[in-house]
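To fix ideas, we close by showing one paired sequence and structure record:
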Amino acid sequence: MPSTVNRVMTTDVLSVGEGAAYKEIVDVLLSASVSAVPVVGADGRVSGVVSDQDLLHKEEFKRVAPDEDYWPPLRARLRALLSGAGPGRRRAADKAAAATARDLMSAPPVTTSPDASVVQAARLMERRGVKRLPVVDGRGRLVGIVTRRDLLRVFDRDDASISVEVRRELEDTLGPAARGVEAGVEEGRVRLTGRVNRRSDGERSARRTASVEGVVGVDNALNWRVDDVVPDHVQWRAR
């Protein structure tokens, strides 16, 4: 069964209120050695996230010459536009002038739920380009935070425990025919050998094996008695 966020998230979460001052936020980040904190409104719901990047705009926009007019790099402006934050220069400049978390934070926040799978959380982080996700309950209240490093914990399993679960998956997939399949595990990589009745059984077994937590990769060396897999080009011609 895939791990859920509540198994890997941190529940002792630092947060700041929307009215938290700039230096207060800096103190929180530095004292806790974190790069971002959720911002919580008066109703207890997460309203945004403020990061060291948000705070550094104040330093970024300081003039080093009286007539200097600084523009953020094109990449940063495009990223702001794609995220719906408005023109990059104006948004970054607004944060440079901001004094409280309400104006500094990135909003709306990208959040997840405790019951979301680790796979879903990883995909959300990648899609939205974030390194952490506040974890909220059904009312939007903060219950934890999950980072990219937390998600890597699913790979922190020994080969023996992976082997037990792989065997269980094979038996669920193949039934009694699983006795004809061997699954060797080394450093999280699984090698399937033996014979199955149909080629599709072998491919399905490999997919199920790959879904086991802690599995780094699968080498499918299974043989089959009947090739029941129709090549893609044959399927296309039959349409």
Notes: The chain has eleven helices and eight strands.
